[in-house]
Amino acid sequence: MFTTEEIMQLIQSLIWLLAGVGVFIVGMNFLSNALEKSAGNGMKKLLGKISNNRFSGVGVGAGVTAIVQSSSATSVMVIGLVNAGVMTLMQATSIIMGANIGTTVTGVLVALKNDFFDMAMYLLAFIGVMMGFFKQEKVKIAGSLCSGLGLIFVGLNLMSSEQAFGNPLVERVFIGIFQAIDFPLLLIFVGVIFTALIQSSSAATGVVITMVGTGILPLDLALFIVLGANIGTCVTALLASMGANANSKRVAFIHFTFNVIGTILFTALIWIFKDTTINILTSLFPGDNVMSLQMRVSLFHVIFNVTTTLLLLPFVKQLVNISCIVIKEKPETKEQFSLKFVDERLLSTPSIALMQVKKEMEYMFDLVEFNIKNSFDSICNGSTQNSQTIATNEKIINFTNNALTKYLISLFPLAPESDEKKIGAYFHVLNDLERIGDHAENFHEIGLEVLNKQLSFSEVAKNEFIDMHKKVMEMLNVSKNAFEKLDHDQLPILADIENQVDVLKKNLTASHFARLAEGNCDVEMSPYYSTIVLGLERVADHLVNVGYSILNPTGSQKENG
């Protein structure tokens, strides 16, 4: 039994340990967010290299995780991309494997700490906080990176301090606990639960490495806890997949299965050849100093993830097939509209989320282009062939406008200052595309109404607005190229065609009234003709806004000279 004083000492040590874990996790989040913001373009390039090549996928996974310093964050990002239909299961599986390798970087950093390094990190944390008071976005990001890296080591020092583990009573209690659970499966279970609770395998591994360095946790027991931590980290991905489609759930299942298989293999290996394993790790890092003790755990973590990846990489297809057998597709229900490339889970990585928003807008642009192009079939040819498609596209355009607007509102406070202008531009572009879609719908309705009333335009009138329509379609292609490719060279061309459309509108309006005066135009057709010409001119204005949005958030040509 413990005395009241001893119980208070234990509680105090536990508080120091938890405080250290908390500071470590805060530091990890600071570092992760800063790296993601500063390396957003690098992550885009890495994800742009996604292919069906397994080795390429592993490289991308390892690279992205090295940037964001969290395999859980990479897994959630991948689940979001799969749910958005951007990535296949085969691609996602190899990336998840690579993510497990990328997360070992944190363990190596933790193991390298020493007194001089710790002092440097304390100073770095202070400098980072001071840099946070600057107004420049780049300086703030660099400050977050410095303070995050510093806080990681502040947290580690709190965990390994005398207040946490320096008391002989505390050491005796912890040693007694580990002796009581000196059974591989129990130790793995401890690793799973601890990691699941703090939702960070890096923090869990950091605690284990620190405890080994203080001598409280023997190396042979630590290895099993590290194995459990690799399973526990899957909990974040499993939670992220809830409410997602079947493929996203399969990604989380594959991540879990991958780590479980690796853990089973290494558990059997260490259980049977425990002395040999310990001797190999000890021979690689001899001595009883703290760094040697910690590097043994860190090296094991690296070996586990690299070996498991090499063993299971040839069986990616089989893992995918098993996931499809375990997780079935739900029976198809009545189709509801949903975004194709955007997912709420991607908000954790704003640069990737913004990249996906642009893809969604490009898809919206394709729908607008189809509707503007085909809405004239009913006017010119009396065709109703594309009526259903135009109506469906218009609903999707409206849905996309509303859904993306809400998504951008959520994304705005999370994105770096450098992306604020781009997000502002996207708000305006969405509105312009939606308005163009409305005009296309109006053109189609005019065609149907004229058809139902058995009316017709004169050949002269028809040829006039067909010419104007061709000019607008030419503008649409130029505006689309400017927006999608950020091609500034297209903007003068766009402005020139828009001027031609304005001249056409004046000329067509004048010729229309001349025909009316001469009695060569049916008065009943006059409102339809005027609405078409005015609508095409409005579409041209919106297309100018879309094109010039790459220079100015409002898309106003005049504001850009």
Distance between the termini: 82 Å
Helical content band: over 70%
Kindly report the average pLDDT value: 83
SS-derived structural category: mainly alpha
Strand content: under 5%
Order of helices and strands: HHHHHHHHHHHHHHHHHHHHHHHH
Largest sheet geometry: none
Q: How many domain regions?
A: 2
Count of helix runs: 24
Q: Specify the overall morphology.
A: elongated
Identify low-pLDDT runs. none
- Please provide the count of β strands: 0
Task: Provide the gyration radius in Å.
Answer: 31 Å
Structure in words:
This protein is an all-alpha fold. The protein folds into two domains: 7-326, no CATH class; 350-560, Methane Monooxygenase Hydroxylase, Chain G, domain 1, CATH 1.20.58. It is 79% helix and 0% strand. The protein has helices spanning 4-38, 40-48, 54-68, 71-83, 89-102, 104-111, 115-131, 137-160, 162-166, 168-180, 184-198, 201-214, 219-232, 234-240, 246-272, 274-284, 290-312, 316-326, 350-381, 387-411, 420-452, 459-485, 490-518, 526-548. Helix 19 runs antiparallel to helix 20 (387-411). The longest helix is centred in the N-terminal third of the chain and has 35 residues, at 4-38. The N and C termini lie far apart (82 Å). The mean pLDDT is 83.
